[in-house]
TrEMBL record:
Residues 473-548 form the Carrier domain. InterPro entries: ACP-like_sf (IPR036736), CAT-like_dom_sf (IPR023213), Condensation_dom (IPR001242), PP-bd_ACP (IPR009081). Signal peptide: none annotated. Residues 450-475 are annotated as: Disordered. It comes from Nonomuraea spiralis. Transmembrane segments: none annotated. This is Condensation domain-containing protein. Its cofactor is pantetheine 4'-phosphate. It holds the Pfam family PP-binding. The lineage of its organism: Bacteria, Bacillati, Actinomycetota, Actinomycetes, Streptosporangiales. It comes from the Bacteria.
Amino acid sequence: MGEEFLFPLSFQQARLWFLHQLDPGNAAYHMPVTLRLDGELSMETLRAAFQHVVDRHEALRTRFEPDTQVQAVLESWAVTPELVDLSGLAPEARRRELDRVRLGVLREPFDLWSAPPLRVVVVRLEPRVHVLLIVIHHIVCDGWSLGVLAAELSAAYTALRGGRAPELPDLPVQYGDFALWQRERLSGDALREELDHWSRVLTGAPAALELATDRPRPDVPTFDGARVVRALPEPVALGLERLAHGCGASLFMAVLAAYAMVLCRLSGQDAVIVGTVTAGRSRPELEGLVGCFIDVVPLRVDVPAGLSWAGLLSRVRTVCLEAYAHQEVPFERLVEHLQPVRDLSRTPVFQVMLNGQDTPRQDLSWPGVEVTGEPPEPGVSKYDLTLDLHRNTSGMLLDLEYNRDVFEPATASGLLGQVAAVLDLMAAAAPDTPVEAALTGLRPAIGHRDGFSGRRIEPPATGSRPGEGSRVPPDDAVEARVLRCVRDVLGKEWLGVTDDFFDHGGSSMLAMKLALDIEQATGYRLVLRDLFDDTTARGLAVKVRAATATYELGGH
């Protein structure tokens, strides 16, 4: 592999690094690409084309340090596509085995600490029919990057197949340069001003979207997901664009207005926070890079009574434009600043998403091979609901990804149907039509609103320092060592063994530092989930003692 070059993590990577520490086996942040290849495929040319792309992009040959937020770029790394030959199986057995292989490739955990998180598998179905499976961890890739990868792979394969060296434009910067620039830019007064803006926007917003669910919410989500899709015809899309443009808004804003209105109606709330992704490529030299630039921003939409469509769209337009103007604040830093009520069963700040799918489409033509993109493998849902909007020549496609932990297919389909019904009404409405006209017929989703069982921890009643009399001293040396670590990380000497780490300024990033400090002090490495199961020094000491006893009983 040769020499390694070290860079700090970007803020986007830091969040994903932490989540991987918390649950290394979670495939929610694996990004898959599936391509069907019909024709005379050259495995050697494919390997060489992949190698050319990996050599160009440092992000694709990066591993990560497990104990510090550092990424190590490898000087070189050989990528070798794995070939799985199913051509000898009967057609039905071949289809079943392809599904099994595809799911396995998607869900197999990555070892971020030892090797770049890129996996390439070619499945041979027939001599001239192959399926190319590519999975990359989100920590080095985003949706835009997949388009860059596909375009460069096509160009490299085409050139190499013709006996020529690939000619791709030079990359003026690499991802490590972006991480350094971002860390320098988002610091000090500039960061504080941005965080103050988001505090003002989100003050008074609902702590969570309380939709009725079909089953109790599990303590820890499994991210088990599925999708429902609904197409809207071209006249509806044109009508929505006409209404939106007449109000100075976009099609995305019109869909957000309808989505927020339905969610408010079904939850009984008069405001909702909807997350949306941002490309994060604010400089032109970043557009051709593979890397994790994408982030999310919260869109707070209030839907008070008495609005017209023009009034609602004006409100949504303002929300979106302000969010885009302040989108550079990394979401993880925003969460740390806001310190929302912690609920391990839900994502913080928002639980629903809306995305407009506008990443550039790429030419996938290869010489002698017809390349067809296949839809992503269902089965992963990072949020309760994620609605993707696709605009095409025949109209609009609404693609709703839902969390099967809490929603049945019929419920998700019904909710999507209600969004589509509101959009249909909007398309034919005049700007001054009252919004309430669209609420008739909307009905609450089936299920039980209070069915979740997630662990919710309310913030402390006051932020004041407790008196000396409330401090509980350690009972033994283990508690003393753990408490010493907690005090050092938080910088609060008065804390006792029963004080909650998160109630006194702890955050996800500080939790990672605490885990490392406790390992150095006691010899036992906490799993990050331990820090959420019991967040006091006394509770963590119990885990340290139990681990030590197990280690000694094992004869070590």
